[in-house]
Structure formats: C-alpha cells, structure tokens
Amino acid sequence: MPARESHNYSRIDRPEINSVLFYPRLDPVWIAADQYVKAVMIPVSAGGVVSSLWTETKKSSATILVFHGNGELASEYINIAGLFLKMDIRLICVDYRGYGRSSGNPTVSLMMEDAHDILKYVSSQINKKEELLVIMGRSLGCASALEIAAIYGDQIDGLIIESGFAETLPLLRTLGADPDYLKIREEDGFANNEKIKSFPKPLLIIHAENDFLIPVNQAEKLFAAASSQQKKFLKIPNAGHNDIFFTGMKAYLAAVNELIKAAAKWKTAD
Question: What pTM was computed for the model?
Fold first, then answer.
C-alpha cells in the first residue's frame, strides 16, 4: 500500500506552466532490438502508452528506472545504458507523453500519474527477489522519481537524484514562467523537499558545480532534507547541467556502484 497520498498538482497543471516545463519531440530513429537493448511501449492511464528503452543482461544485479530531463528522449540514453551493462545493471529509461513514440501531450498531472503506472509495469517485468530496483530522476524527472519514492518506498531499494530541484518556483522563474502573476505558491508545486523526507533507504544525489539551470544549492537543500541515514552527495566540478555525466563519468559510475552495494546490504538486512 502507498505510504502517503499523491500530491495535488492542479495549481501548476496549466498551459502557462506546461509550455515551459515540457519540450516534447518525436523520435524519428527508434531502437533496433538486439540481445542487449529493446524498445518497450508501457501502457498508462486512459489507454495511452509511453515509449521506453530497456537493456538486458544475463543476470542483472539491479535495475535502474530512469525518468529523464525535459529536453531528452529515452533512446538518447543508449550509450549510457551500455556503460551500466558493464556493471551488470539493467537500465530502463522512460519518456513522457508526446516524447519519443509516446501517445498524447505532456502535462504535469499526466507525468505524475504515469509514474505510478510505469512503476507498476516495471515491477511486474523484473525479478525483485533476485535484483534490486533503484529509481532515478534527472532534472525535471526528479519530480516523478520523488513522487514514487515517497509513495512506494517499500517497493524500491534505492534512489538517485541527478541535477534535481528542491523548490518549484525558482525553476519556473528560470524557465520563463511568472508564478507571482499566476498566483502559484511553493506549496502548489512538486513538494520535492517534503517527499524526500519520506524515503529512508540509500540515496545518491549528484549535481554539477556549474549548473546554471538548476543551481547546486537546490541539491544541497534536497540533501539536507533527506531522512536517509545512508545518503551521499556527489558534486561534479567543472560541469554544467547537460555535460554532468561525461565530465564526471568515473566518479559518477563509482557513486552509483556504491549506492547499489548499500541498497543490497539494506535489502539483506530488511
């Protein structure tokens, strides 16, 4: 059963906000299936589907379910997924409505509702007795990741937040929306700073030192609010919002591997 009720997003689910939060685009070149990678269409509410990239290993130690950033596509994670494969980690990256080959158009409410359906589907497709399930959210995707981590924390083993934000209003202002004019308060937003308090298991927060879209102090606020007793904050020097992985790849992958080990110990002791 969910640990808490889903947050109400009606105040920010409006055209003025959705138009600056989402940058949907189609994926003209889709993934050719082979023994390591495949495209999966995940069923979501009201008969819709979201596209996703899945990688496979003969025996995965963990599955990482990734909610990507607002200007990205799941298929663009194929090279990163290959690096995780070398660590025996399966990566599943999911799109939003209107992205890739997903149906419909993206809205805040649909993004958050779909996160629940996606978790349910992924959980049904993996062997949770044999492998860990870790949730990861990058940039805007941290809102989806924290939504399900707060509600279904008993069903997942670890949480990774990359380039995430604690507060909604500063992000909206950076993207060009005027929350004051729209009469939107911080409590009307994604409530990431509150949700992270609900997750007690191993946590990794990664942020670029020179991220000018989502300043590093947002990650620091998330880290301070987190209740996890096994939490790590990795700051990537000389990196920005969009080059964080490849700039800090060695430290990034080492930190992910450390999180997987911590999650495995937690699961064994639970």
Answer: 0.96
